[in-house]
Design a protein that fits this description.
- By secondary structure, the chain is mainly alpha-helical.
- It has a domain at 45-101.
- Helices cover 48% and strands 8% of the residues.
- It contains 4 helices and 3 strands, in the order H-E-H-H-E-E-H.
- It has a 3-stranded antiparallel β-sheet.
- It starts with 8 loop residues before the first helix and ends in an 18-residue tail after the last helix.
Length: 121
């Protein structure tokens, strides 16, 4: 029995992984050839931080991460496209629509502390 090698579960798993990897690599090569004729690339999904950066830089709207967190907690944030674990992911087109709709809303009146400047007691 010394001359016979035993195949462990790890060895079997390793060989299966190698086979799956080679099959996936071969499939990717065939997929890229067929994808070259596809009309549009898959849409990129953004995390919340990336969404804030997108709204700020690409759309030119003032927005901070903390404001986005607050709006989402209040249910006023952009619609979520998907979830990745506990992370919310957003589509760029949804952010565009949300930012335009949000920009057209009337700003609430600002609150002031104490007495206003023009008033005397």
């Amino acid at each position: 029995m010394r001359g016979v090698s035993r195949v462990t579960k790890y060895d079997a798993w390793k060989s299966n992984e190698a086979q799956r990897h080679s099959q996936m690599t071969n499939q990717q090569h065939t997929d890229t050839a067929s994808e070259s004729s596809s009309p549009s690339p898959p849409e990129r999904l953004l995390t919340r931080r990336e969404a804030v950066e997108y709204v700020r830089t690409k759309l030119g709207r003032p927005l901070t991460y903390s404001t986005m967190m607050k709006l989402c907690a209040l249910g006023e944030g952009p619609p979520a496209a998907e979830y990745w674990g506990q992370r919310v992911l957003y589509r760029e087109r949804d952010l565009d629509v949300w930012a335009v709709a949000r920009g057209s809303q009337k700003a609430p009146p600002r609150k002031t502390r104490g007495t206003s400047r023009g008033q005397t007691s």
